[in-house]
Design a protein that fits this description.
Order of helices and strands: HHHHHEEEEHEHEHEEEEEHHHHHHEEEH
Largest sheet: 9 strands, mixed
Number of helices: 15
Radius of gyration: 27 Å
Structural class: alpha+beta
Helix content: 25-40%
CATH topology of one domain: Wheat Germ Agglutinin (Isolectin 2), domain 1
CATH architecture of one domain: 2-Layer Sandwich
Distance between the termini: 41 Å
């Protein structure tokens, strides 16, 4: 494990060692900080009733948590790629991209946009985006579904680091092609992106790959397309549009007058069918119907998945911090995977039986991790054993996987009936009689 290697080889601590259970407990504490935040992380372990958190203090000692914060590593320092500015988190990002793609729930409508990870320290890849809710931090190129499930994400290291970009499509176009390159080629997609990425050459190339794409486009990327000028359209009635179609490439460019003139391009959607949308008119002091080309409806209905994912992540963002420059990137993907897991949970039958919002789902995951992975030290005189059957989540008890009946080294109380037994369930780690085993796991 890279954490153990870092403690020994880089910090000279040959006593420190950790395991998967302890790391999962560590992650559970980080998740708790997202919805039960304190200004200093040491306050979770204080005895004062205004700050003490029993779940955190009972799961891991403060000193042990500090050691894990100090030694945690996801890469091998002996084999870092000197040309990669994000080599410290690259193994984790590569693995999570593979998992996100593996469990991606097929949805036809996808969007590509920028995400920002808050960071106020110093790093050559730190970005400043004036119009984003998070203005300072690391930029991630993100591919997401319409509901916000993130399929692929890639940190932006800067133009000098992006040596593989294709000159004919520019940086934005190369990002689109890179994110879509891992997607199954046999499935139809409808992708939307903003004017940072859109070019007519990119739309033409995506047509040859069978990918439908729509995006807003800048005026300097229209390649002398003879549309009506913005000044002319601004003087026209609201809902007026101008369109030009390239028959050889099947790429259409549409300029539409709403509050302002917006220009869009697509290789799949056109003007027809024309829709009607409600807008407020200052001149008439009432709501009026305005004509809207179909390409605008397609764009509005497809774009926004990345913003929805960012909104979900920002609700309960991990608040524990360190001085390591890569820590915000690490904490961000933990929150990102949590919202991905929640979106997958909403598609399962369990959601209809036990509907949970993002906060409820996050807390449920924390409780499950605490039950299954906390390694509490044996301190002091043991008290009377308490049946924990009522505290073990039903998702663990009734999942029907890995529950094996085994002998126990010591006598324990049955989690179902409370009487003494020398049998146990290996997965649930609770005492059970043979005749209580099936009932406790919901198989009776």
């Amino acid at each position: 494990m890279n954490t153990n290697n870092y403690a020994r080889q880089d910090k000279g601590d040959h006593v420190f060692t950790t395991n998967a259970d302890e790391i999962k407990t560590f992650l559970a504490i980080l998740l708790i900080s997202g919805y039960s935040s304190l200004p200093r992380r040491t306050m979770y372990w204080e005895a004062n009733p205004d700050s003490h958190n029993e779940a955190v203090a009972g799961a891991m000692s403060r000193n042990r948590f500090d050691d894990l914060m100090r030694f945690l590593h996801v890469s091998d320092n002996a084999n870092l790629d000197s040309t990669d500015r994000f080599a410290k988190v690259r193994p984790l990002y590569t693995m999570l991209n593979e998992r996100c793609l593996q469990f991606y729930p097929f949805e036809q409508h996808l969007s590509i946009d920028e995400s920002m990870v808050p960071y106020f320290g110093r790093h050559p890849s730190k970005q400043f985006l004036r119009l984003k809710p998070v203005r300072f931090g690391y930029k991630l190129w993100t591919l997401a579904t319409n509901l916000g499930y993130v399929i692929q994400f890639e940190p932006y290291a800067g133009r000098r680091q992006d040596s593989e970009q294709k000159a004919e499509f520019g940086l934005g176009g190369s990002v689109v092609l890179d994110l879509l390159s891992e997607m199954p080629a046999s499935l139809p997609y409808n992708v939307a992106f903003d004017n940072y990425f859109t070019s007519l050459k990119l739309l033409e190339y995506l047509s040859t790959k069978g990918i439908a794409a729509t995006g807003t486009v800048r005026a300097n990327r229209l390649e002398k397309c003879p549309l009506r000028t913005s000044r002319t359209l601004e003087k026209a009635d609201r809902g007026t549009s101008s369109a030009m179609l390239d028959a050889s490439t099947n790429v259409i460019v549409v300029a539409w007058r709403d509050n302002k003139v917006v220009c869009l391009a697509s290789n799949s959607a056109g003007i027809a069918p024309v829709n009607s949308v409600s807008r407020w008119s200052r001149q008439q002091n009432q709501r009026v119907n305005v004509s809207q080309p179909n390409i605008v409806r397609v764009y509005n209905g497809t774009m926004g998945g990345v913003d929805r994912a960012d909104q979900n992540v920002s609700l309960y963002r991990i608040t524990m911090r360190t001085k390591k420059w890569w820590w915000p990137l690490f904490a961000h993907v933990i929150d990102l995977m949590m919202q991905n897991a929640w979106l997958l949970y909403r598609k399962t039958p369990s959601y209809h039986e036990k509907p949970l919002d993002l906060l409820g789902f996050r807390r449920d995951v924390v409780r499950g991790y605490m039950m299954r992975h906390v390694q509490r030290p044996n301190m002091g005189r043991p008290g009377r054993p308490q049946p924990i059957g009522h505290r073990l989540p039903l998702e663990i008890r009734h999942d029907g996987k890995g529950h094996f009946f085994a002998d126990s080294d010591t006598q324990r109380r049955c989690a179902h009936c409370g009487k003494n037994t020398r049998k146990t369930c290996v997965k649930c780690a609770v005492g059970l009689h043979l005749h209580c085993f099936n009932v406790f796991h919901g198989q009776d």
